[in-house]
Amino acid sequence: MSKRSKGAQKAQATAPRGVTSLTEAKAWMASRGITEIECTVPDLAGVARGKIMPASKFFSSPVMNLPLSVFFQTISGEYPDYEGLVDSVIADSDLVLEPDLATLCSVPWAQDPTAQVIHDAYHRDGRPVELAPRQVLRHVISLYEKKGWKPVVAPEIEFYLVEPNTDPDYPLKPPVGRSGRPEIGRQSYSIQAVNEFDALFEDIYDYSEAQGLEIDTLIHEDGAAQMEINLRHGDPLVLADQVFLFKRTIREAALAHKIYATFMAKPIANEPGSAMHIHQSILNTATGGNLFSDEDGDPTPEFFSFIAGHQKYLPAVMCIMAPYVNSYRRLTRDSMAPINLQWGYDNRTAGLRVPPSTPEARRLENRVPSSDANPYLAIAASLACGYLGLTENLRATDPIEGDAKNLDFDLPRGLLEAVAAFQDNEALAEVLGARFVSAFAAVKQAEFETFMRVISPWEREYLLLNV
User: Fold this and answer.
1) Name one GO molecular function term (predicted).
2) Local structure of 69: helix, strand or coil
């Protein structure tokens, strides 16, 4: 082995995240005394599924098997009717899951030295599993690559800190901070309100550093104990992986402090909902320049086509952007959550915002997705809207300059309406994959049926003695 390759292997062994081979993975784990490894795959909900195994077993056979049903499981643990969705329903055949060693990192909250690695799913004949969220995003990225384009994204994730809630019949409450008191009012951008949970956020930063996750900023949002973490811009798949890991990291850090962290879109009545805003730009791979800016620094026709694609197709991907019944409680009039398809320059009341920037950083912020969305699918769906806008040469409306919060609804009001729009859109099925569209719609419909079995407090309060 040359000195250079030895040096590269040593650098990989000391890096917090990612290697390129099993040999480097062995060195990486040995340097940390890793004894176990969590082999994960994100499902349709963005939940980590997989197996935990001894490190020695992982290196003897790094390929993992899980049943196909892992990509059909609803958030309540049930399954839709499989008929017409998959070929081998009865057998529920095993899939082959192969580790993406670029995602190898530690599990800093584990009691024993533990690593984790995200896997990609394949059929036994080597074909990627069309339903796997990482594959859906990869496919959309590949469509851009064929056009000579490279998408760049930067997600922003909002979440609430709440008191532990072991009985779902009781509403959530803000947690008690270091002052001994919970928040009772709005504390937007308050440093002091963030300082109430300094010990928790120190753990989040430490855990993130140990995993090679890059936080750009941390702020307090509008709601009581509502926070937002912004990530640095980069490759869509890498950023989706980071959001996937961040959600778990934040939950684990909060649990260590006897607090829940929740990414529900609307966890507390009369408080703002939580979003996952997605900033997007496109690079020309031949020049490295921003496709959205011309040589004079002005916006290009492609920029407005990208916006127009979102205006046309966002209603049809709302069941991805807002994937649960609760998600639509966030999308209400006179709130900062968008209800229509207006766009504007630095206008946070619009669903599509163009932030102030240099020409090199010109981008579109999609403010529609909620924080409960699967990051792989939300990014894929948003890029799919922009891609169709570009390839269909669509034209955007004029930008709105006033308040868009109380204009008419342009987006679906509920999950079933959103699923119907998703199923009926042939252009999106071409970009996202027809099998994925069918399977995702079936899972959402099954989740809605589960919700309909629950009687809400509103029904008991207003219907019990009045009808």
Assistant:
1) ligase activity
2) helix
Q: Please say whether the dihedral angle defined by the alpha carbons of residues 127, 133, 138 and 143, taken in this order, is positive or negative.
A: positive
Q: Are 88 and 94 in contact (CB under 8 A)?
A: no
- Pairing verdict, β 114-122 and 36-42: parallel
At 330, the amino acid letter reads R
* The amino acid at 437: V
Rounded to the nearest angstrom, the gap between the alpha carbon of residue 261 and the centroid of all alpha carbons in its chain is 16
* Cα distance between residue 73 and residue 230, in whole Å: 30
Model confidence pTM above 0.90? yes
Placement of tokens 């994730």 in the chain: 157
Nearest to 182 by CA among 159, 157, 158, 160: 160
Quick one: which of 97, 213, 100, 218 has its CA closest to 157?
218
Q: How far apart, in whole angstroms, are the C-alpha atoms of residue 318 and residue 89?
A: 28
Q: How far apart are CA 81 and CA 97, in angstroms?
A: 24
Angle between helices 133-146 and 375-391 (to 10 degrees): 30
From first to last of its 467 residues, the chain has per-residue pLDDT tens of: 444 455 545 555 568 889 999 999 999 999 999 999 999 999 999 999 999 999 999 998 888 899 888 999 999 999 998 776 665 444 567 899 999 999 999 999 999 999 999 999 999 889 999 999 999 999 999 999 999 999 999 999 999 999 999 999 899 999 999 999 888 777 787 898 899 999 999 999 999 999 999 898 889 998 999 999 999 999 999 999 999 999 999 999 999 999 999 999 999 999 999 999 999 999 999 999 999 999 999 999 999 999 999 999 999 999 999 999 999 999 988 788 999 999 999 999 999 999 999 999 999 999 999 999 999 999 999 999 999 999 999 999 999 998 988 888 999 999 999 999 999 999 999 999 999 999 999 999 999 999 999 999 999 999 999 99
Of 200, 185, 192, 194, residue with least CA distance to 228: 194
Return d(Cα 51, Cα 33) in angstroms, integer: 20
Find, among 59, 65, 253, 31, the residue nearest to 159 by Cα: 253
For residues 186 and 272, give the distance between their C-alpha atoms in angstroms, rounded to a whole number.
10
